[in-house]
Amino acid sequence: MRVDIFYSRFSASTKAWVDLLGSLLMLLPVMAFIAWISWEYVVDSWDVLEGSREAGGLPAVFLLKSLILVLAGMLMLQALVQIVRSAQTIRSNR
């Protein structure tokens, strides 16, 4: 996590290091944990094709629960893009 008050004053190389470390040490591990911990929750929902318990509720709750894994996957992909972009910036400023 970065504080924009300080981050805005950093050089491009320092910003790249902050982004690289933030992605490697925070974003990737947290998203991996979310994917791992929610996997069984989503699979169980798919096993029974879960719907809403409320009358007139959503018929396909299992699809909504699947978005948890989509979120984790997309944010991990974004972290990888950020890592590559930061590495390129660091290399180009040497």
The chain-level mean pLDDT equals 93
Termini, distance in Å? 25 Å
| SS content category | mainly alpha
Radius of gyration: 19 Å
DSSP helix count? 3
Number of domains: 1
The number of strands is 0
* Element-by-element helix/strand order: HHH
Estimate the global geometry from the Cα principal axes: elongated
| Sheet with most strands | none
Low-confidence stretches: none
Proportion of helical residues: over 70%
The proportion of residues in beta strands is under 5%
Can you characterise this structure?
- The chain is mostly helical and 94 residues long.
- It has one domain.
- It is built from three helices and no strands.
- The longest helix is centred in the N-terminal third of the chain and has 36 residues.
- The radius of gyration is 19 Å and the shape is elongated.
- The model has no long low-confidence stretch (mean pLDDT 93).
